[in-house]
Amino acid sequence: MEVGFHGVYREIVPNERLVSTEIYEGLPEGVSEDDGATLNTATFEELDGRTLVTLLVQCANRVSRDAIIESGMENGLQDALDLLEQVAASR
Asked: How many Å separate Cα 37 from the centre of its chain?
């Protein structure tokens, strides 16, 4: 199954933080991009020679938040993070 997303990077601080927007291209009729967009912040912190990644996803409203949670995207995100961990470990 393919899904489309787009967004922009709002802030890039090397080795510290990435801030970006994310908009699902399959938003239901009547939902504006402003209402459906998320603001995503990834922070990177060194702890004992390892990197701790913290992800914060901010939604414009509760309806959008609940739709994201109910979509099952958590499993897809976990799969992506597992792959990222494998790549990092191989380096």
From this structure: 11
* Kind plus residue range of the DSSP H or E element containing 65: helix 62-70
Higher pLDDT, 11 or 65: 11
- For residue 27, give the DSSP letter: P
What gap in Å lies between CA 46 and CA 29, rounded to an integer?
A: 43
Given this model, what pLDDT does residue 25 score? 79
SS3 for 44? strand
Q: Which residues does 38 contact at the CB level (< 8 Å), separation at least 6? A: 21, 22, 23, 57, 58, 59, 60, 64, 68
